[in-house]
Amino acid sequence: MSLHLPCPNCGADVVFRSPALPNRVCDYCRSMLVRSDAGVAKVGEVAALPFDVSPVQIGMRGRADDNGFEVIGRVRWAWTDGAWNEWLLLFDDGANAWLGEAMGQFMLLREQPIGKVRTRALREIANGKDARPGTEFQLDQEKMVVADAREVVCVAAEGELPFTARSGWRLYSVDLRGRHGQCATLQRDDQEVTFYKGRYVTLAELAPRGLRAIEGWTLPSYAA
Amino acid sequence: MNNRTFVYGLWCLGVAGLFIMSTVYAWSPFAQGSRARTHGGFYGPTHK
Amino acid sequence: MQPDTAIEPQPAPAARALTCPSCGGSVALRAAGYTVHVACQYCSSILDVTDPQVKLVTAYNQHLAELEIPLGTRGVLRGVEWEAIGYLQRSEDGDYGWEEYLLFNPYHGYRWLVKVRGGWSMGEALTVTPDWLSYDQLVVNGENYTHFFADGEARVDYVLGEFYWRVAVGERVKTADWVRSGVMLSREENASEVSWTRNAWLAPAEMRKAFAIRPEAIWPPLPHQPSPWGAWLRTGAKIGALAFAFLLVFALFFGGTSWTAAGSFPVAADGREQSVTLGPIVLPHRYQSVHLRADVPQLENGWVDLDYSLVERKTQQVYEAYGAAERYSGTDFDGPWSEGSRKAEVSIASVPVGTYDLVVEYKANRWSGASGYAETAGWMDPAAAPVVQVEVRRGAVYGSNLLIALLLLAAPLGLALIWHLAFETARKSESDFAPSGEDDDE
């Protein structure tokens, strides 16, 4: 399954583990690489990740929805009032999901085809309308409320990714929250709309192995 | 076990101990009769 | 920084240092990557750290508050180590001020340490929204809460340290609170967002252990402060009930005999003092109580004085008791009446083993105080042959002793209950939703 290739920029060994994830950032020279039938091509450079104290790191393993996963990529996003991480999880069954990490809380989100979303207000937002925080609507029999709607910018990325996360890439992002821990995110730019749906999780319930060690802090008991 | 529970447990033991003692000696503070200080003589009515 | 964190064997550093553009002081960033605003620990100017280039938001050069928990202090609360990284003073427009510390642990995220009137709570942001159960009840994660405060407004008066959002002095949110014992559920609302926080009461001992905080007196109690007697009352009631059950079972094993007739003797018509000796009465136990019951079936408007003496045959030791059977009746404006009893029971405590004679000295009397018509129905009439019948019973356990034991066992529980109710009354009287009966008292 895994495809090992030399980085066209620096020659280091780079791994592509899934055909669904054709993008990756070279661990050594930070080149953004895209894999195709013709081979691997460099499409740009990715900015260095700013220092943070996130407990998650590439290579961390865990379990969610009765399936093991490994953290294989990350995109760091920013907006006017802060920044957050989206970690890409590759599950043992080949599926992938995002672990959003913001304000010390975690969200497990899976991409859903926007074509299947029936909620009219959400389709209007997908088609270019602005969302207003506080707006409520039904989504799959659940009442959801718009928690945030803002322009976000891609700061940096690392590892394997399903898309080309160029630093400076701008998106319009709308966050939705349900009453019982459900959450969803709609992101759009000029070309594309993507929709993610999931729920709040705790790091503990993911039974993480290989958490990032942070100086002066003992690893939590759930990771022992 | 906190202090309070311990102290109350001691109190209960004390009360139970006193009760057991009173039972062993068949004693009651409300018994009308008791051992006479002098025996024999006249046991007249002590009322009215 | 090198980007090869994936294969880096060294632990990542915990803090990042930056320079305050206002005073030049070196500010430690303890939640790098999360923190948005920092209030400089030297001049309390507010800095924006979302960009690598630190921006000054508001320049201050004010007197720094002396914090009970200096920022950077760590403490273990409920099994998790936390570092105090931010500090807020808030109030209801200047009244009822309180303090909030922002706690951080990279593996557990953020918590709040809230100090109100000397009492501490640990707050955690909820990712779920409570559901209404009734007009004043909420339920979340299976816990019910009762409305306590309504229509509050919290204003930020002072900030220090770092925060994961843009802090600003003067910022206001609408607040409301619901409580259950030990937990307060707080709702904060601004123009764009509603957030819920679950605040768990921290006992003074927990705060002393975690952050060496000196306990303070809190009165009236805080809305979610658990009564110091509430939980104990259950434990105490269990212990008390167990002790009493033990005494009951014990008492059952010390049962005595049933009543047996000791003798029947005539009442003289002239009311002279009479004497009769009954027995022998054999007492087998080391100590026992002797119960004597006299029955005078013909007694009417008169009384019988009874002097009992239990005399041990060998030692001549005497145990004595006095009893009287009295019975009066008549008719007045309200109709017929009667009082007293034809039976009289007495007991003698702590009688040792031995063979005893029971000497009964008795004297029958007529009631001369009866005004008008008084029916004596043959009392002290030789034709009716009135008699005194005496019955004897041996026992050990006095019911009164059991009652005294019950009272003694229950007394501490009763005190605890009174203190508990006083505490609960004082606690609830602070509520915006206090029952009307309690409002009248205020």
TrEMBL record, chain A:
InterPro entries: DUF4178. Residues 57-201 form the DUF4178 domain. This is DUF4178 domain-containing protein. It comes from Sphingomonas gei.
Automatic annotation (TrEMBL), chain C:
Residues 71-202 form the DUF4178 domain. It comes from the Bacteria. The lineage of its organism: Bacteria, Pseudomonadati, Pseudomonadota, Alphaproteobacteria, Sphingomonadales. This is DUF4178 domain-containing protein. The chain crosses the membrane at residues 239-262, 402-423. The keyword Transmembrane helix applies. It comes from Sphingomonas gei. Keywords: Membrane, Transmembrane, Transmembrane helix.
